[in-house]
Design brief:
By secondary structure, the protein is mainly alpha-helical. The chain contains 9 helices and no strands. Helix 2 runs antiparallel to helix 3 and helix 4 packs antiparallel against helix 6.
Length: 176
C-alpha cells in the first residue's frame, strides 16, 4: 500500500509525524493524557514510523535509539542553553555537564543519539551513517539554542517539534 504514496509525500509524512511524536514525548499535543511517561509510548511509535521505510530490525533500532536518547533528563541543560534559570536541581547526569559551555553541554547530551545510529549503521552495513550522530546533535543543539527562548508560552513546543522533524530526517537519511 505504501507503494501508492509518492516518495516525497511519504517523506513529508514521516517528518511531520516524528515532529508531532517528539512533542507528545515532551508532554504536549496529547502526551499529557498518556499513562506513565510519554516516552515509553512514543519510542515504539518512532520505530513504527521508521518501519515505513526501513526493515523491521532497523525500525527496532530506531525505536530503541529514540528511547535511549530521550531516557535521561536534559531539561536543566536546555534551560541554561535557552537563557533560563533552571526550575529544578540538576540530575546526576546533568551535573556531569555542569561547568561546560551550555552549547557544548547540549551537544554532548544530544549525542545520546549515538547508540541508535551505531545500531542502524551496523544493521544496514552503511558505516557512513555514523556521521549522522554528530550532524543530528549539532542540528538539535542549534534548534534548541534558537527556538527555546523565553518569549512566550510555547518555548518547549517550538524546539520539540523542530527536533522531532530532525528525527524524521534521520530516519529518512538511513534509506539513502
Amino acid at each position: 500500500m505504501l507503494d501508492l504514496i509518492p516518495p516525497w509525500a511519504q517523506a513529508c509524512a514521516i517528518v511531520l509525524v516524528c515532529a508531532w511524536l517528539n512533542r507528545v514525548r515532551g508532554g504536549g499535543m496529547g502526551g499529557q493524557f498518556l499513562p506513565g511517561r510519554a516516552l515509553f509510548w512514543v519510542a515504539p511509535a518512532i520505530g513504527l514510523v521508521a518501519w515505513a521505510v526501513n526493515s523491521w530490525p532497523v525500525a527496532v533500532a530506531f525505536g530503541l535509539g529514540y528511547l535511549v536518547w530521550g531516557l535521561f533528563s536534559w531539561g536543566h541543560i536546555l534551560a541554561k542553553l535557552g537563557g533560563y534559570t533552571p526550575e529544578r536541581e540538576a540530575s546526576w547526569l546533568e551535573r556531569t555537564f555542569e561547568g561546560i559551555w551550555p552549547m557544548l553541554a547540549a551537544f554532548l547530551r544530544m549525542l545520546f543519539v549515538l547508540p541508535g545510529v551505531i545500531a542502524v549503521a551496523w544493521l544496514m552495513g552503511h558505516w557512513w551513517f555514523l556521521a549522522a550522530a554528530p550532524a543530528f546533535a549539532a542540528a538539535a543543539t542549534t534548534v534548541y539554542a534558537l527556538l527555546f527562548r523565553p518569549i512566550g508560552t510555547h518555548d518547549w513546543m517550538r524546539a520539540e517539534i523542530a527536533t522531532g522533524a530532525l528525527w524524521g530526517l534521520l530516519i529518512l537519511s538511513a534509506t539513502l
